[in-house]
Amino acid sequence: MAFDQRFLEELRQRIPLHSIISRKVKVTRSGRHWKACCPFHGEKTPSFYIYDDHFHCYGCGVHGDVISFVMQSEGRTFNEAITELASLAGIEVPEQTPQQKQRQEQRHNLYELMAVAHEYYLSEFQTNRAQIAREYLLNRGIAKQTIHHFGLCWSGDGRGGLIQHLKAKNYPLEMIGEAGLLRRQADGQWGGELFFNRVMYPICDRRGRVIAFGGRIVGEGQPKYLNSPETPLFAKRRVLFGLNNLTSVFSRKEIDPLFNTILVVEGYMDVIALYQAGFHGAVAPLGTALTQDQLALLWRASPQPVLSFDGDGAGRRAMLHAAEEALPILTPEQTLNFITFPDGEDPDSFIQNKGVEAFLEIIRHRQSLSDMLYNLSVEAMTNRSPEQRAALRQRLTSVAEQIKDKNLAREYRKVLLDRFYEQFYSKNKPSNHQSAYEKKQNHQFNTQLVRPALQKDQVEYQRMCILIALLIYCPKIISRVEDALCRLNLPEELSILREVLLDFPLDCDDIHSYLKERNVIDLTKKIVRHSNLILLNQNNFDIINDFGQFEKRWWHFYGWLNIHELENQVTQAQQDWINCPDEEHQRTLIARLNALDAVKRGEIDT
Description:
There is one protein chain. This protein has four domains: 5-89, Zinc finger, CHC2-typedomain (DNA Primase, Chain A); 98-234, DNA primase DNAg catalytic core, N-terminal domain, CATH 3.90.980; 255-433, Dna Topoisomerase Vi A Subunit, Chain: A, domain 2 (3-Layer(aba) Sandwich), CATH 3.40.1360.10; 454-606, no CATH class. Helices cover 50% and strands 10% of the residues. The chain contains 26 helices and 16 strands. Monomer. Interacts with DnaB. RNA polymerase that catalyzes the synthesis of short RNA molecules used as primers for DNA polymerase during DNA replication. It catalyses: ssDNA + n NTP = ssDNA/pppN(pN)n-1 hybrid + (n-1) diphosphate.
């Protein structure tokens, strides 16, 4: 019985391979993967390695996936293995319709056809007519052994040799066209060969089966590169050139682990040059920007693949596009890193000009996704004006909002805004260079509120507590005072609570539960008590909806702490009201003006 490939793929993904193998032998962790003593030959030192989607024994050479393991270890037929695994996975074995069986047979025949086509192109590569192709590859520094590994070949002159060869093998013209090897004519009929006078790069699936070709023209002509069209075997959005090489990357234990880095580069020659230099984890998208399907393939091989780009404007745009694709599907377990090359350089040319050690050094200094996003966002600023800073802050917030994992989105927002305020507003940078978020992670709450060792005096510290207490009682004003709040140089305990309040959801009506969930409820109560701002039941912190007076009082205490910044906030509010003279902007301006006047008159709000 033939099964649909989508069902088989789902079956492989549903069942962790190591859990099936552990029924036969003891398995142990080995980095991201697993290892065991081979169940198929006696050994005392483990050489049987288990990856996400396959196993391989480096002692006896046995290799396969979860289905073949059940077949080989338990003597089951293919159908019996499928039935057993489907039961374990809790999915039903699908009943195949005649149409499904026909499609499955078609795919099987197309795989065979592509293998025969590749054999033809390989034979053409050995002829005198392919001298130009061999010279091109050798002049690019590609060794014969590398040419053989990637199966590089020559298309021939496109005058029907491939068609005749395939027809002689009983493949009809319609199937040759469906495999993506022929041109489609204006009338819908199949025409001549798609590839001619081109160096051919076989494109393989994860199992190493040829599913498409890429061709580079030698000499004059356009397009320079040409890929197979979409076929039943080939969807360029879900394939990466060099993907089949990743199965053996993590088995190389004797070399620097950086050589096993999963690298995403731009084109065929970059992948080939890196492989030849010892970097077997290089892959490339096929003429398209990186897609979410391709990211999923990368994350199956590594939780932190490294994307490489040129250092020019086009490279920066490509980095941003890759980040935009990744952010919605980012998780705490899978992210991206980035490396860039000097203008005019790509991985192929860089290794030839600078050498392998220089390339390793670039990998060592790779950027995290958050660093890349922040740096590119800052580079987009044309000046340091208030308008540009506000726009930057909005961009950084928007980046975090694209992440669907709420916890991860919250952490990204913290990290990005920490860097923003540290760069543009920090007056006293900590000597240990820790961000406020890093301090929070390392801080252990004590049962007693610790006074800051460097506080100016008790009055100033109490006013800081009052500012925080007002926000706790009336969190609706947080968004209205957020910019000024972030500019305050607060002691550590108050800084921690400030960050928690900045994350308070606007549509939430239960701040007590929120503070309890964030494990700061005891700290909150102590700060509120220290403020002497006893307005409501401290155990509930009921939200106050009438926030006009609270906003005024907040700005008043803020002015006593930093009158110059309050003056700046008044100026900003005046400009905002001029640009948008609505009731909300007017209310904000009046609250700040009243507070500034009160401070200048020496009034003390209590």
